[in-house]
Amino acid sequence: MDRSLSELRSPRTELVVATDTPGDRALEAADTLVLCDPYDTTAVLAALSAAGIDRLDGVFSLGADNPPVISAVAHRFGCPGLPLETALDCTLKDRRLEILRRAGLDVPRFATAASVEETVRAAEGIGLPVVLKPSDRTGSLGVMKVESPEEVPLRAAEALRISGGRIVVEEFLRGTEHTLAGFMVDGTLHRFGFADREYGRKEQFAPYFFEGGDTLPSRLTAEQIDEIGETVQRGARALGLDPAVINTDILRTHDGRVVLLEITCRITGARIATEVMRLATGVDPLPNLVRLALGRPLDLAELEPTRDRAAVQRFQPADGGVVEWVGDPRNVTRRAGVHDVFWGMELAPGTVVPPYRGGADVLAGVIAHADDVATAEAVAARTLRTLPLRFKDAAG
């Protein structure tokens, strides 16, 4: 969960939270807490049944990229929601790219492969460098850049092991990357957030990509953001995402192409939509997310910005080592401009921290805000440099 939902409850509302990580936010928000794997439909339905839940009025997801599960649970309980096939179309990378390509949207050149041999042929046809992506995985798990013919078989085998049997081979494009968040209703996209993705250290852990966080406001002009919004609206229509909450990843090439990397029917995660964007604009999308889940009309006035500040989220990547001592990062939040500091994984003395292999290998993160981006970035950088954490040296 990204944040507490306590303020959304009325005296007659009961909130059921299904999670495999029952942290403070989930415990605070839930009337009923159900422990299960939120990415496994069968596990979710079984856990709800075991908890005696026989009625739900609405279903939505926070902090989990699991639209097919949400659709299946909504269908089981007769709640508003997208068809399962639509959720799969916008979750499985190969299906999503094919639908967008057929609709005339600009997407990376790609091919789908189910074996090492097919991956080799696809890479040869597209031309190196290419990006390998497990079709059914999220959080950049198994996403790798391959630059030489000798690397392709090894990296293909790794991506196939992680995937459910299919990987996408994409051309590697350069440009700036951005996140757009919004609601799609009656064919119209109602944008409530737009952020720049921070990739200054993108290839530090090659062949894996490192995303350093998100930044608001964007460096793009209003006209450029509107152009991206129009492209995303076309993509959402092609995928049948209506009514739906929309999360997108977009690459804008140096020559001005707007390339769709991802469109899916979930709220932007990693606390971006619910906290980072809200700090910058004052827009809280959660009440409208609940209205959408219940099949009620949106209150579009709540999507209008009420403030104009800078907000950033920055991550510290894990890079191996053994923890010697760890403190409470929340003590750092007393500093001006620090909204929150948090560990990205469970840490204790003796914890063996893995080398970075993707978005799940984040050591820590910070959300900071200020009057301007440069100040917010400086606050975030200073905070990450003073984390209450010490590793054993090589001799130890």
UniProtKB/TrEMBL annotation:
It comes from the Bacteria. This is ATP-grasp domain-containing protein. Residues 97-294 form the ATP-grasp domain. Pfam families: ATP-grasp_4, LAL_C2. GO terms for molecular function: ATP binding; ligase activity. Keywords: ATP-binding, Ligase, Nucleotide-binding. PROSITE patterns: ATP_GRASP (PS50975). The keyword Transcription does not apply. InterPro entries: ATP-dep_AA_Ligase, ATP-grasp, LAL_C2.
